[in-house]
Design a protein that fits this description.
The protein is α+β, with helices and mostly antiparallel strands. Helix content is 25%, strand content 14%. The strands form 4 sheets. A 9-stranded mixed sheet has the order 8-7-6-16-10-13-14-15-9, sandwiched between helices. Strands 1-11-12 form a 3-stranded antiparallel sheet. A two-stranded antiparallel ribbon has the order 2-3.
């Protein structure tokens, strides 16, 4: 046999690994990123958790020092309500291109809105500043005439270039049509989930449910026409970031905004889809240490406020660079905004009215339907927080808990399965050593990025009034709540749980249906 110097080394390594297994205590390791678990909960999904009421703290965080009012008698709200000016007075050193960039538009748009024939301006001249809605409504100015070229220099348009242009145009038109329908359905109480301009399964199902319950929208053509008429063909509006919004936005960390959002800094190829934001790198200990689980960025705050996907929001605001600040103006879907600062105003639940009975149903474990007097009034996408969690028959809706916290002693959710020892007494095959539970509870603080969101609605079996360990609740991951495993209950987007709680009185029957 040919001698190999690598063989003795490999035998030593194998022997060392075997001995290491005798002395090392097995510990619970986080699931890999591919395990489809909500960021930070990779280990925590294996523990028992229960809902704890709020500590009664103020809803939100203290404003950062740099945003506090600097003038006597001033208030943060005064600064927070600053809006885009309607006019601008030309100053020394100004130019059309500088003014246009200041207000996130092109020189051509500013000139068109002010009916200027050229870019000459004078000090003291008053220019009108269009809103984002007005910018969107403006028709693009005709391009300047191209200089005449010799016939010999003309190059024919390649078929590939023409196809790419038509493909991009069709894709943009399809996205606009989808956004218009998504915004319309959301306004009607038939939530498509996150608005993203895509024809996903959830969106198509909500369209189908709406068509079946509305005779004037029974076909795709009628539904499209109804949406266009309701929105006047314009599904977008604008939103200006206010000072008070930063009560719910965590201060940015040192890393660049692209790293926090999970977006790649590399250049994308032409016609490539926007990348989905990667989950932020966070641990359960970091989550437990937080006093308030707020939004990680202004982008996330605005996306949730207007019921849309964060990557989609970035895509429709390409003019915004860097970290958004007070006064930044976003283009957003024209939905009824989720005003988190008012979402928990009391009373949360309505009083039951025998003359107008309310019923609720979970359909196929994918959506919540709410009816009043037998008429369907609201539909919202829903998902189970963990595999196998589902209900049967009829349950009962109980009270609602605003600003819920989650508590745990790190007890295993399921008892460990013991492995029988081998006949030879092999220690490595014995049952794993389980760390003892904590003596005191540890909490995940309240906030929109608590895994159960901003509201928890207790549920009970039909013959009981004892709350179950799982309820209807919000989520910190509205764009991924159908794909990632989490903690406890049945998830709805925060803006949808805020709607649902104000429609469902305590005592309402909740049916579980297959279709």
């Amino acid at each position: 046999m040919r001698y190999s110097p690598a063989r003795p080394l490999s035998l030593i390594v194998i022997a060392w690994l075997a001995c290491d297994g005798l002395f090392a205590q097995p510990v619970v390791k986080p699931l890999l990123a591919s395990a489809k678990v909500e960021p930070g909960l990779e280990v925590a999904v294996n523990w028992k958790w229960w809902v704890a009421p709020s500590e009664g703290k103020e809803w939100g965080m203290p404003l950062p020092e740099e945003l506090l009012p600097k003038t006597p008698g001033g208030s943060a709200l005064d600064q927070g309500t600053a809006v885009r000016p309607e006019t601008y007075e030309v100053k020394k050193g100004d130019a059309i291109i500088k003014i246009a960039r200041r207000f996130n538009m092109t020189s051509a748009q500013l000139m068109q809105f002010n009916e200027l024939k050229d870019d000459r301006i004078q000090i003291g001249q008053i220019l009108r500043i269009p809103t984002l809605a007005q910018l969107l409504a403006m028709t693009p100015p005709p391009p300047p005439p191209e200089p005449k070229k010799e016939v010999a220099e003309k190059k024919p348009v390649k078929a590939v270039e023409l196809f790419e242009f038509e493909s991009e145009y069709d894709e943009a038109r399809s996205e606009l049509d989808n956004v218009r329908l998504q915004v319309f359905l959301d306004r009607e109480g038939f939530s498509p989930g996150v608005i993203d301009g895509k024809e996903g399964a959830v969106f198509l199902k909500i369209c189908e449910v709406y068509q079946k319950t509305h005779a004037d929208a029974a076909t795709p053509g009628l539904l499209k026409a109804k949406a266009e008429a309701a929105l006047k063909n314009q599904p977008y509006t604008s939103y200006v970031l206010r000072v008070d919004d930063f009560k719910f936005i965590k201060p940015p960390k040192d890393e660049p905004v692209a790293a926090r959002s999970g977006r790649s800094s590399s250049k994308k190829k032409k016609n490539s889809k926007a990348a989905i934001a990667a989950p932020a790198l966070v641990t359960i200990d970091e989550l437990v240490a937080a006093d308030f689980l707020g939004y990680t960025s202004a982008w996330e705050f605005v996306a949730e406020r207007f019921h849309c996907d964060e990557e989609f929001l970035r895509r429709i605001n390409p003019q915004l660079k860097g970290v958004p600040v007070v006064g930044t103006e976003f283009q957003v879907p024209d939905v009824m905004p989720f005003e988190i600062e008012k979402a928990l105003d009391l009373p949360l639940q309505p009083v039951a009215d025998p003359q107008k009975p309310v019923t609720a149903a979970v359909i196929s474990l994918t959506r919540l339907e709410i009816s009043c007097e037998g008429k369907l009034i609201a539909v919202m996408p829903l998902s189970s927080a963990r595999p196998g969690l589902r209900g049967r028959g009829s349950w009962t809706v109980l009270d609602a808990i605003p600003q819920p916290r989650l508590a745990t002693k790190r007890e295993p959710r399921e008892p460990p399965k013991e492995k029988p020892a081998s006949a030879g007494g092999d220690i490595s095959s014995a049952s794993p050593v389980i760390e003892p539970p904590l003596e005191n509870e540890r909490f995940l603080a309240h906030g929109p990025n608590n895994p159960v969101g901003i509201i928890w609605i207790n549920l009970a079996k039909s013959d009981s009034t004892d709350p179950l360990p799982y309820g209807l609740r919000g989520t910190s991951i509205p764009s991924r709540m159908g794909t990632l495993q989490g903690i406890g209950g049945f998830r709805l987007a925060n803006w949808n749980i805020a709607r649902a709680v104000r429609l469902i009185p305590s005592g309402t029957a909740l049916q579980w249906k297959a279709q």
